[in-house]
Amino acid sequence: MSKDHHHHDHAHDHEHSPEEIDWRDNGVKVIPGNQLDPNTAQTPGMNRATAINNARAGAEKIWAGTVTIHANAKTGVHHHGDLESIIYVVKGKARMRWGNHLEFTAEAGPGDFIYVPPYVPHQEINASEDETLECVLVRSGQDPVVVNLDIEPVEKPEGVLWKDPIHK
Predict the structure, then answer these.
(1) Which residue in 11, 66, 94, 109 is a FRET match for 86, CA 20 to 30 A apart?
(2) Domain Cupin type-2, which positions (predicted)?
């Protein structure tokens, strides 16, 4: 991809007023849902696909894509380095397990948001036996950091109610 670097960065150059920026090429981008890129870091048990990144949309600080987990499947344990992740459940039933021994668990369904802080070892599980779990994923950075971990889970994870700290 031959992008003129000066052209790409000039929107952040204070010498140019907004009237001088070519908004046609440096404005809103629509990425059709059937044109996502599966060529991104993967974890066993799930399929990630990139919608928004620098190469596809010019994004500099965030990454967005989709995650699909087949019925009754679970992912390998992993973390995303110093990145923050937000998962929005579109369809299905997600069970998250996290902790040094995956000792904590919570569930989320369609319309729910899940926040995963940096470095948290976690595993996504499709809690449905017959429905695919479909999610939208947003991360705080461009690097597709996925550190796959070899963690032996504890047998019975401790349930954590899906509530923010204010409403304990």
Answers:
(1) 11
(2) 66-137
Residue 163 has pLDDT above 80, yes or no: no
User: How far is 131 from 93, CA to CA, in rounded Å?
Assistant: 8
- Residues 133/88, Cβ–Cβ less than 8 Å: no
pLDDT band at 134 (very low <50, low <70, confident <90, very high): very high
Q: CA–CA separation, 10 vs 2, rounded Å?
A: 16
| 129 membership: H or E segment, kind and range | none
**DSSP designation for 78:** E
pLDDT at 85: 95
> What does the pLDDT read at residue 45?
78
Q: What Cα–Cα distance (Å) separates residue 112 from each residue in 26, 78, 91, 108, 148?
A: 32, 21, 10, 6, 25
Predicted confidence at residue 54, as pLDDT, reads 92
Residues 161 and 105 sit within 8 Å (Cβ to Cβ): no
Name residues whose C-beta falls within 8 Å of residue 115's C-beta, 6 or more positions apart in sequence: 84, 85, 86
Q: What is the pTM of this model?
A: 0.77
**CB-based contact 43:75 (threshold 8 Å):** yes
CATH number of 32-163: 2.60.120.10
